[in-house]
């Protein structure tokens, strides 16, 4: 998005189309001589069989500045893990496929469970957390980047632009969040960001008043993007949510741990498309219904920890305010899509808004009934304090799995 607007909360780094990918790559390769850069790829085995991941590997094979790639593999049996190792073997960089369901990894999980430190549920949050632990144990990288494995429009410029702000030694940034328009050439996508997060943050500001945290979240153009880069020195104290609140949770941790001047967002693509979750109105534990509830809970928890008092009446007012704001924004999105020749189904959009409004109440009820609920996985600093050998054993388990299941 070629503009140069800054809103003052965090720095926005734009793509003004004045610098080539080759130039960025050359500079990153020089930076990587002294600040090694590693990439984490959390994935499901099913993504190895889809169209996106093979194309992503084609691009990654040509990236010269990556020191290490860590692949967290979920929902794979032994034969599938063996296939995954072959699948990723063409990567020229150092790489490790971590089989999260291996007997060794499950035994490590039981060890954490005995200490009361095990992640409470499987999913992307647990996968990312485990990969971060492996990277911390390697102790050889200064920069960590993460992106999803289902990006249909992926190219290596996305990664270069994502890591540049934290890899450039003259920049102060310790975290960079990627943003982009969620379009596929035909439709305007990104329903949860457009129809839940954006109007919810506006409604919260009206209902609970000005909060620096709300202004901070509103400054991100795509707060739910799965693409971010961080200095590895920040990882041991990072609390990773295990539910669908992962992206909001990481932004909240950056708000808690880092100065605003050390956080930025960066334009990484003109178009971004990946697999789409079903709305799933019939099942609150699946799809965008579950995602929207978890995101609301994550925002409510953070505001409560900063002193906001929530009541049933407040949540009812918030639902009504959100609903009006979401419908107003829907008109904006419709006009934007029409002007750019994109389709937008107003009926489906309003059905989404209705579901999200109900889930604001549902998330509020869960929050009020379980005020001590903590979906956060313990920090790696805490795990290391409770079990000083755990990280080295994690490193060894991943290496032994790679060796034994070739």
Automatic annotation (TrEMBL):
It comes from the Bacteria. This is Glucosyl-3-phosphoglycerate synthase. It comes from Roseovarius litoreus.
